[in-house]
What we know:
The chain folds into four domains: 2-118, no CATH class; 144-245, PAS domain (Beta-Lactamase, 2-Layer Sandwich), CATH 3.30.450; 254-343, Helix Hairpins; 350-499, Histidine kinase-like ATPase, C-terminal domain (Heat Shock Protein 90), CATH 3.30.565.10. The two termini are 99 Å apart. Strands 2-1-5-4-3 form a five-stranded antiparallel β-sheet, with helices on both faces. It has a five-stranded mixed β-sheet with strand order 7-9-10-12-11. The longest helix has 66 residues, at 247-312. It has 13 helices and twelve strands. It has helices spanning 2-5, 23-53, 60-83, 89-118, 123-146, 165-171, 175-178, 192-203, 247-312, 317-345, 358-369, 392-409, 467-477; strands at 150-155, 160-163, 209-217, 223-233, 238-245, 354-356, 377-382, 388-390, 415-425, 428-435, 481-486, 492-499.
Amino acid sequence: MEFLRRLFDTDFMPHGHCYFWKPAVLWTNVLGDALIALSYFIIPFLLVRFLKKRSDIKFRPLFIGFAAFILACGTTHVIDIVSVWYPMYRLEGLVKDVTALISFGTVIALFQNFPTIVSIPTSEQWKAVQTAAANSERRFKLMIEHAPVGIIITNFRGEFLEVNDAMCDMFKRSREELIGKTSQHITHPDDINFSTEIKEQLADGYEKFMQIEKRYLRGDGTFFWAMASATSVPEEESILVHIVDITSRKQSELRMRDDNEKLESKIAERNIELQETNKDLENFIYAVTHDLRVPLHNLQGLSTVVEEELGGKNGTDDAVSALQMIGENAQKMDHLVTDLLAFSKTSKLELKKTNIDMGMAIKTAFDEQSLLYNDKQIEFKLDSLPQAFGDPAAIQQVCQNIIGNALKYSSHQAVISIEVQGKLENGSTIFQITDNGIGFDPQYSNKLFLPFQRLHHEEEFEGTGIGLATSQRIIQKHGGEIWAESSPGQGAKFYISLPIENK
């Protein structure tokens, strides 16, 4: 503290005594120190101004350290001049200590940054870098100029900064006509909103890349379709846009759409015509079958009456046989008409779907159909079946047909054997009805579900060939499938597949 209190005391001999107060020696040293101090004061001032004007300069702390060091050195020279006449050697020592600290700090900073400073490129290296950058820029410009697609570089306000030759050719406008314009100047009026939306999304940073098909206007007033791909470049505050002419493809798409609309219109017309034709056909079938049943019933009744009369009068056997044949054929025709009428009704069947107890449906069908074979021994095995989903009345009719067929074509066996199984598989319920009947040749399985197609002679098994066709139509209306597997003499397996409720 005593040192600091006497910091400005002049209780020593002035430094001028060292020069014996000889003017030549004294003023030579004083002037030298003064010029050095002046230089040391100007250099930091210039360094600080340099840093203010060049905000890109690195090592700013190091520059400031050098400025402080040089300023401190200048101050020591000023103190040297003062001490010639006023020996404030305590102050001079303190200034030199401060200068020493600043100098040492600058040395440390210099050592720390030395590897980086050494790696600063030389002028030749800078020249090579600048040459490479210039070449890269030249190649970039050449690539843009000679690109086969239109290229635009815009700022975030949407103003065109650069356009290439392909762009000018595509729009039939000169470069001068396009530079400074925005997409609104070259966009079809109906598509301007698309351009504004894309620009805002990219400029605000919500999207990095966007692509859209829109119409552009050429300089001659015509327009064309193009695919515009825009990429945001935030570092440059710009948007890079690629434009590809897709007029040919778009015209093809429009023609295809028109053709499809015309085709759909024609199909709709044909469907209406077909529906009307089907309706007329259904009405015709219904009318014919309804009108046929009355004379058929009359024919059966009359043949029975005549047969009784002839039998009662000891008529000839040939006449009675002929009348019996007439009655039997009339009955067959009545069955055929009834089945045909049932088959025609399936086309306009309205399904009222619900869960169906298939075990009960199969059991009911068997109980009714087996009454026709009271004279036969029947083994009937019914496994636990999963529920089905469909129209109960329609599915019951299918069960009647399938079980009836199984009994009929197994009736020549000593013991009729029928087994019914069910399972869930791939989102469907599948039911399998197996019999031990005479089977059929699998090469004719495609005819099995066709109307009026029979794989066995009528003399062997009665029937009209409508039952399986009706069953197939009902199952298909439910969105399911029906098929069969068999071999001659090996029985048959019929499969019914129905979608489950949530499908």
